[in-house]
Please model this.
Amino acid sequence: NAGVTQTPKFRVLKTGQSMTLLCAQDMNHEYMYWYRQDPGMGLRLIHYSVGEGTTAKGEVPDGYNVSRLKKQNFLLGLESAAPSQTSVYFCASSYGGNNQPQHFGDGTRLSIL
Amino acid sequence: AQSVTQPDIHITVSEGASLELRCNYSYGATPYLFWYVQSPGQGLQLLLKYFSGDTLVQGIKGFEAEFKRSQSSFNLRKPSVHWSDAAEYFCAVGLYNFNKFYFGSGTKLNVKP
Model:
């Protein structure tokens, strides 16, 4: 059982480039989330989805877009990468709601030069 | 402002010693409460959760946590720490009727042999 899988695991971009991070879950979870983790700041929610075809903004959505075309996949896009977006990105999924524990992927380490 | 506070950034304990990691939250109602652990290069793994009922909850790996409403706290404890417990620990809250989690900034645990 793979759980939550994130690709790629590492990536280096130049300022202004675009890219898409992929998250896939095989647990038939309705809810999916994208977080960024920065030293001393814990995890901050970027965007989330409560079901296929739906997305919503989290705490720090600027500079990111997301899509949930299939239930099992949640894509995070960086439109024009900036050094401030250097971070570790985590995807998570859950059955639904904030009383359900979230299951996390192993993260994508992204550096913007 | 609503927040989750983990006042200790780093904690070092000797192997075999007891451990308590602090977590305080500031929300109007009792939220759903979670503790997660993150090993280097890994995603977050759920240790335990509190929704209601008995205020002392047991988790995996010998951890427990106690919810104290009067102190708005949800501290994590372990009677005897093992070297493999060295990791970063995050407290998280889920608000009733909202689809979001809020994470504390984390406490990094070092274990001395």
